[in-house]
Design a protein that fits this description.
alpha/beta; Rossmann fold; DNA polymerase, domain 1; 2 domains; seven-stranded mixed β-sheet; 13 helices; 7 strands; 39% helix; 14% strand; globular; disordered N terminus; binds S-adenosylmethionine; binds zinc ion
């Protein structure tokens, strides 16, 4: 089906591929679990005059922009300021039982990353916040660094940032804290990481990139909610409905891949167990044996698409 992709849309990663893999039909209802600036939602709504979307985002600022952008679609788009871990509750509120498709485009939006005051990026000096939901009571990145033990800080940086030198970074953070100089801004953290682990000659990225990713994942609890979200999304699909998930780093991609495999019936029990206890039963068919990645044109135009991986599945039962 031809799709009218307007000039704003190419900032949305893999938009054409999302539309393709969701196999849009007329008069369907979708959940966009990460509405962001509404790019994917717009691509879906433009496909047919009867298509409807329930859009979710935990960022009130993003919602404001999406509302403007999608106003022309009237009540075909309903927007919820929630965490997508509440996807089932959102359906209940909307009075919708099952949907034809769910799309999630994980991680931070360019709006969040490029807003100095949100503290996601060391390109600007700002308070170290990193909460995607700025209205929540969750601890900011600065508060985590002020309150966690050295061991916990090192674990987060190692696990979520895949940073081999995590212990050196954690030890310096805690040492500073003891000197009465807690880490409170993006620049302080970026400088500290650089001092702690140095900068390799061949490094293309700033040495603090992995530490920033790790803190963002911890502050927003990104990995903890992902498996449950994939399972809940499959639960709310109609038979024949589709789920598409775009991830931006290997930790997320692994969770999506393994959850899909389990829902496709692959047992993940250790071989020594006499019988299966992981509950694998065939609920979905995986549509992407290998993840879909951006093509050359998109890569040239949008650097964010470099690490994007799209996986999709079809509900069969
Ligand atoms: C990459 S952007 C989405 C961009 C959008 N697909 C578009 O085309 O404009 C990711 C969005 O997901 C939101 N988000 C991330 N994790 C979330 C969660 N657990 N619950 C709700 N929203 C979330 C972020 O606030 C951000 O606005
Ligand atoms: Zn099993």
């Amino acid at each position: 089906m031809p799709i009218n992709i307007d000039e704003n849309i190419h900032k949305s990663v893999l938009a054409a591929e999302v539309v393709e893999v969701l196999k849009l039909q007329a008069a369907e209802i979708f959940v966009d679990a990460t509405l962001g600036l509404g790019g994917h939602a717009q691509a879906i709504l433009e496909n047919s005059d009867e298509t409807q979307i329930l859009g979710i985002d935990q960022d009130a600022q993003a919602i404001e922009i999406a509302e403007q952008r999608l106003k022309k679609f009237g009540d075909r788009i309903r927007i919820f300021h929630r965490n997508f871990s509440d996807i089932k509750a959102v359906l209940l509120t909307a009075g919708v039982e099952k949907v034809d498709g769910v799309i999630a485009d994980l991680g931070v939006s360019s709006l969040q990353f490029d807003s100095a005051e949100r503290g996601f990026s060391f390109r600007f000096d700002a308070p170290l916040d990193m909460r995607m939901n700025a209205d929540s009571d969750a601890e900011t990145a600065a508060e985590l660094l002020a309150n966690l033990s050295e061991f916990e800080i090192a674990r987060i940086i190692y696990e979520y940032g895949e940073e081999r030198k995590s212990r050196r970074i954690a030890s310096r953070i805690v040492w500073k804290r003891k000197q009465g100089e807690p880490i409170e801004t993006t620049k302080q953290l970026a400088d500290l990481v650089e001092k702690a682990i140095g900068r390799g000659k061949k490094d293309k990225t700033h040495p603090a990139t992995r530490t920033f990713q790790a803190l963002r994942i911890a502050v927003n609890g990104e990995l903890e909610i992902l498996e449950r979200f994939v399972r809940d999304s499959v639960d709310i699909l109609k038979k024949g409905g589709r789920l598409a998930v775009i991830t931006f780093h290997s930790l997320e991609d692994r969770i999506v891949k393994q959850t899909f495999q389990n829902l496709a019936g692959k047992c993940s029990c250790p071989p020594r167990l006499p019988q299966c206890v992981c509950g694998a039963s065939k609920e979905i068919e995986i549509l992407t044996r290998k993840p879909i990645v951006a093509g050359a044109a998109e890569l040239a135009e949008n650097p964010r698409s470099r690490s994007a991986k799209l996986r999709a599945c079809l509900k069969i039962n």
